[in-house]
């Protein structure tokens, strides 16, 4: 299957909202007004009912009116619809669920960026979806922070006998997907609820400004991998470089890169963490850990035709999608001036089209195996 069908039909979630979600407090407000809490409806009686230390008597009947119109269902429906709707800010849409505020939007513009990036990453791996040497017939695969779900869709097509799960904070994935793929809504920074020794492959790609505690994430993945199973993480380190001195130190996109590292460090989800993944995997007990770094050209400047194509994708990504990474954080985290940023972005967009600037971005692949 190719680019995900953006049909706005949201996939159903198999895991319910957890405590700590932004909407988890609303049921308490509603329960104060619930029928039966107070015959008179007076505030004093309601407060007394809340403070009552006696054992609460259970209602074992299931045939009364209240059971059908279960308030619990109402709460869950309202939480679910909040999550589905997301939060709108400055014309962009953000996830409404999760322990931490998120900084990348989840609207069509961002999902299109995910899909464009997927084409570039697949080209970089010459058609492969991952590099880890997993078993020939995997049974269970997990995609962390699945976004538009495009990697999960492709891997489910490639391994029809495997059960694939794509997990994300936001229910933005298409509903028409391969039958062996399900999407779940959950926060991967919380305790994982998947089984021990469950997966043959756990995959996480481009989890930008998303993960505060990578060592914890790779430890949780270790528990959920089968012995012999692999974790593969991949992501860019937007530290632009050129091998022939054609990148001037005052380039606007170098300034954008500094802004990105500053923003991500301030929220505790540093964009430099990709450089430490290998150590984190080794510390967690993985073996055969490999780090493979690929240079992504910033435009079609290379001679080689495959690299030229990758550079063309990267140029389109920078020109049309990179603003997404800064959409919320530049003002929100750094208190930056949006007009200054627009000018900087316009300059950077001009620069990246210059084929005389032979710059590239390092992209990290790190994988490791849970020993038998
Ligand atoms: C840049 S997108 C990458 C999408 C996908 N991995 C890919 O490469 O096409 C990052 C995704 O991670 C999700 N995400 C961020 N923090 C998360 C968390 N704590 N738990 C689950 N998903 C998260 C975001 O909602 C977003 O969809």
Protein model, in words:
The chain is an alpha/beta fold. The protein contains 13 helices and ten strands. Strands 3, 4, 5, 6, 7, 8, 9 and 10 form an eight-stranded mixed β-sheet that branches. The radius of gyration is 24 Å and the shape is globular. It starts with 25 loop residues before the first helix and ends with a strand. The structure holds S-adenosylmethionine (SAM). S-adenosylmethionine (SAM) binds next to helix 5, helix 6 and strand 4.
Q: How would you summarize the topology of this molecule?
A:
Blueprint: H1 26-31, H2 43-51, H3 65-68, H4 71-85, E1 87-89, E2 92-94, H5 108-124, E3 140-144, H6 150-158, E4 163-168, E5 181-185, E6 199-205, H7 214-224, E7 225-236, E8 241-242, H8 252-266, H9 277-284, E9 287-297, H10 305-321, H11 323-326, H12 329-332, H13 338-352, E10 359-369
Parallel strand pairs: 3-4, 3-6, 4-5, 6-7
Antiparallel strand pairs: 1-2, 7-10, 8-10, 9-10
Bound molecules: S-adenosylmethionine.
S-adenosylmethionine binds at residues 95, 98, 102, 104, 106, 114, 117-118, 145-147, 150-151, 167-170, 187-189, 205-208, 210.
């Amino acid at each position: 299957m190719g680019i995900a069908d953006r049909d706005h039909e949201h996939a159903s979630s198999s895991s319910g909202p957890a405590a700590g979600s932004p909407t988890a407090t609303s049921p308490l407000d509603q329960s104060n007004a619930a029928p039966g809490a107070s015959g008179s409806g007076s505030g004093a009686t309601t407060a007394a009912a809340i403070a009552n230390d006696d054992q609460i008597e259970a209602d074992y009947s299931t045939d009364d009116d209240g059971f059908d119109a279960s308030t619990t269902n109402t709460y869950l429906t309202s939480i679910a619809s909040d999550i589905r709707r997301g939060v709108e800010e400055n014309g962009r849409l953000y996830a409404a669920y999760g322990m931490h505020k998120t900084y990348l939007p989840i609207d069509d513009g961002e999902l299109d960026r995910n899909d464009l990036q997927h084409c570039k990453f697949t080209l970089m791996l010459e058609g492969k979806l991952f590099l880890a040497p997993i078993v020939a017939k995997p049974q269970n695969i997990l995609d962390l922070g699945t976004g538009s779900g495009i990697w999960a869709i492709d891997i489910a097509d490639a391994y029809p006998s495997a059960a694939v799960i794509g997990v994300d904070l936001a229910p933005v994935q298409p509903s028409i997907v391969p039958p062996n793929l399900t999407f779940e809504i959950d926060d991967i920074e919380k305790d994982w609820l998947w089984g021990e020794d469950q997966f043959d492959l756990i995959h996480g790609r481009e989890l930008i400004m998303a993960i505060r505690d990578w060592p914890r994430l790779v430890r949780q993945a270790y528990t959920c991998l089968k012995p012999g199973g692999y974790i593969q993480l991949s992501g860019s380190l937007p530290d632009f470089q050129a091998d022939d001195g054609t990148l001037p130190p005052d380039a606007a996109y170098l300034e954008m890169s500094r802004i990105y590292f500053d923003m991500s460090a301030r929220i505790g989800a540093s964009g430099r963490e990709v450089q430490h993944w290998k150590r984190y995997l080794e510390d967690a007990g993985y073996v055969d850990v490999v780090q493979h770094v690929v240079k992504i050209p910033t435009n079609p400047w290379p001679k080689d035709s495959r690299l030229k194509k990758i550079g063309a994708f990267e140029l389109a990504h920078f020109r049309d999608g990179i603003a997404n990474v800064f959409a919320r954080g530049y003002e929100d985290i750094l208190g930056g001036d949006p007009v200054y940023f627009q000018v900087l972005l316009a300059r950077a967009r001009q620069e990246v089209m210059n084929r005389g600037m032979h710059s590239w971005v390092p992209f990290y692949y790190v994988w490791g195996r849970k020993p038998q």
